[in-house]
Amino acid sequence: MKKLFVIAAAAVCAIAAFAGEPAGGVFRHFGIGVGAGTTGIQIEAAAPITHWVTMRAGVAIMPGITFNSDADVTYSNSASDHAESNIDLQGDLGRTQGLVIFNFYPIPKQSLYIAAGAYFGGSELIKVTGHSTELEGRGGDIVIGDYKIPVNDKGEAKGGIRVNSFRPYLGLGWGRAVPGKRVNFNIELGVQIHGKPGLYTDYGEVTVSDFTDDNTFNKIMDKVKVYPNLTFRLGFRII
Fold it and tell me: What predicted TM-score, i.e. pTM, was given to this entire model?
């Protein structure tokens, strides 16, 4: 996947180079963008490669927004080899992603652009933690969808939902990454291709469950194969 991204980026630059001369020289101008949206706070540096193509690179920081849910849990006790209970869990959305994106302007004098590139890092989409006094000294397994995350002897669970560490991105936007004047506004809508999400755990291994628990975390896993990006951004021309 990474090789495909490098080839695609090189192809875009090559096509743009054949289409016209660089706008005042490669990387002659420079801008900073600060945005907010579904990826959190996004900070970028941008520079035009040609009249048609501008390169952006930066980070997207999602604050540690938390939410609560519950899940079924199985464990062993003195009365039975198998018992069932319930555990309260907390999900944490905080993560930091890197990004490299190319804006392609099909009509150079217009602000409409097509964005193509990738996000990387921040593969832990949601961190999951929980604790149950009922499970202290017993351990057990939390059921999320068709899989189980182990609980340690202290009654603690820790793990989460993980996606690909390299995620291709496509989008459509309006606005210049490097403003013609000092400041501008732009908006962008796109999608990250996450691939198939999976569970991870800090204690033991993820195993297959004998039954399915369709809880909040499982519903999230079913829906995040493609992650929507909506960003509102202010751009500042530095040079």
Answer: 0.81
